[in-house]
């Protein structure tokens, strides 16, 4: 019989694999080499570092992460040792998009002077999106819907698009408009990061990055803490009119100076929604089913009764002013409550994150 080790904080997964495998559930930080000696499969979140120290001398041949990230997995080690890896790319993209705009409108509610320059000049505020994948593309699309001008920067995606245009696989009127990073930083009232953590993005937001930003701009990071040089960010803080931070270097032992400097600070929960978690679980269950040939689970659906509560509130954003949009979004996600909780209990970062009450995503509300 198969043996699975699963992070116990992955929701909606208990009981799914038991008819087909022996399953052990552990906290992510408790998963170590000794408990994997006889495991065939490992299903984790970002809190479990999957590398040689964890995996050597085990029989693990399949790892799935119920998250969008891959930086907690040593892919080179897995490839060289025949370990198949899957993640849940895009599972929580709508949740992160929702977080970004809830936080932005909460920030404007907190300090009405933010974005004043654009308003005084009769211009639409400009939001610069760095990284236009599953999350960034949704952030950009909602920005346009809400009346922002949007700048997009994503060199790898731009290169793929240029190749598709050259080969005739994409027409010019279907193409997305991209710009260089420097142009985006100089011209954006809001800069929001949505990059994966790679060698090329680690510390990309450093001294040069922040010195290039438009004075009085807002900086938002919901991607990876390590994409930002926190020392450089703190040195540039006076230049920024707003700072929203959800991801940090060295979590859970975060930089308290940055916490104090942030206008809105949260414990890495931008992607934490009921639907995002359900999507992540569904994706790893199906991936494991395909790998191990568990036919009954290859098209697995999470029973709706496990999470789908009927919702009557109406969500109506189009054409609304900033104050009205803030009220609509804050009713779904009271972000200041979480900000205060983290500031008052910073040493409990991981506990707050693990026990965060998942919010619902926009699309489950009645739209008008």
TrEMBL record:
<dbReference type="GO" id="GO:0033711">
    <property type="term" value="F:4-phosphoerythronate dehydrogenase activity"/>
</dbReference>
<feature type="domain" description="D-isomer specific 2-hydroxyacid dehydrogenase NAD-binding">
    <location>
        <begin position="124"/>
        <end position="270"/>
    </location>
</feature>
<protein>
    <submittedName>
        <fullName>4-phosphoerythronate dehydrogenase</fullName>
    </submittedName>
</protein>
<dbReference type="InterPro" id="IPR006140">
    <property type="entry name" value="D-isomer_DH_NAD-bd"/>
</dbReference>
<keyword id="KW-0520">NAD</keyword>
<dbReference type="Pfam" id="PF02826">
    <property type="entry name" value="2-Hacid_dh_C"/>
</dbReference>
<dbReference type="Pfam" id="PF00389">
    <property type="entry name" value="2-Hacid_dh"/>
</dbReference>
<feature type="domain" description="D-isomer specific 2-hydroxyacid dehydrogenase catalytic">
    <location>
        <begin position="36"/>
        <end position="292"/>
    </location>
</feature>
<dbReference type="GO" id="GO:0005737">
    <property type="term" value="C:cytoplasm"/>
</dbReference>
<dbReference type="GO" id="GO:0008615">
    <property type="term" value="P:pyridoxine biosynthetic process"/>
</dbReference>
<keyword id="KW-0560">Oxidoreductase</keyword>
<dbReference type="InterPro" id="IPR036291">
    <property type="entry name" value="NAD(P)-bd_dom_sf"/>
</dbReference>
<keyword id="KW-0664">Pyridoxine biosynthesis</keyword>
<dbReference type="InterPro" id="IPR020921">
    <property type="entry name" value="Erythronate-4-P_DHase"/>
</dbReference>
<dbReference type="InterPro" id="IPR006139">
    <property type="entry name" value="D-isomer_2_OHA_DH_cat_dom"/>
</dbReference>
<comment type="similarity">
    <text>Belongs to the D-isomer specific 2-hydroxyacid dehydrogenase family.</text>
</comment>
<keyword id="KW-0963">Cytoplasm</keyword>
<dbReference type="GO" id="GO:0051287">
    <property type="term" value="F:NAD binding"/>
</dbReference>
<dbReference type="InterPro" id="IPR050418">
    <property type="entry name" value="D-iso_2-hydroxyacid_DH_PdxB"/>
</dbReference>
């Amino acid at each position: 019989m198969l043996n699975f080790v699963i992070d116990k904080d992955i929701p909606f997964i208990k009981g799914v694999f038991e008819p087909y495998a022996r399953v052990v559930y552990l906290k992510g930080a408790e998963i170590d080499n000794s408990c994997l000696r006889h495991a065939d499969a490992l299903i984790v979140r970002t809190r479990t570092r999957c590398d040689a120290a964890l995996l050597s001398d085990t029989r693990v041949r399949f790892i799935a992460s119920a998250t969008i990230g891959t930086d907690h997995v040593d892919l080179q080690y897995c490839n060289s040792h025949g370990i198949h890896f899957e993640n849940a790319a895009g599972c929580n993209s709508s949740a992160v998009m929702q977080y970004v705009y809830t936080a932005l409108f909460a920030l404007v509610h907190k300090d009405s002077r933010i974005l004043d320059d654009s308003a005084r000049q009769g211009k639409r505020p400009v939001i610069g999106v760095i990284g236009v994948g599953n999350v960034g593309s949704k952030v950009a699309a909602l920005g346009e819907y809400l009346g922002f001008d949007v700048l997009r920067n994503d060199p790898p995606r731009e290169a793929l698009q240029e190749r598709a245009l050259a080969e005739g696989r994409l027409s010019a009127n279907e193409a997305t408009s991209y710009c260089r990073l420097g142009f985006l930083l100089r011209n954006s009232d809001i800069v929001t990061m949505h990059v994966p953590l790679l060698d090329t993005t680690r510390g990309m937001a450093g001294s040069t990055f922040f010195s290039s930003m438009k004075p009085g701009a807002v900086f938002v990071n919901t991607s990876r803490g390590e994409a930002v040089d926190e020392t450089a960010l703190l040195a540039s803080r006076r230049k920024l009119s707003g700072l929203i931070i959800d991801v940090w270097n060295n979590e859970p032992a975060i930089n308290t100076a940055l916490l104090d400097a942030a206008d809105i600070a949260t414990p890495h929960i931008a992607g934490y929604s009921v639907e995002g978690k359900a999507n992540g679980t569904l994706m790893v269950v199906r991936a494991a089913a395909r790998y191990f040939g568990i036919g009954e689970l290859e098209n697995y659906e999470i029973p709706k009764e496990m999470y789908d509560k009927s919702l009557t509130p109406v969500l109506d954003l189009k054409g609304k002013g900033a104050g009205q949009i803030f009220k609509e979004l804050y009713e779904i996600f009271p972000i200041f409550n979480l900000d205060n909780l983290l500031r008052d209990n910073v040493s409990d970062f991981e506990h707050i994150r693990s026990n965060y009450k998942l919010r619902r995503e926009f699309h489950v509300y009645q739209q008008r």
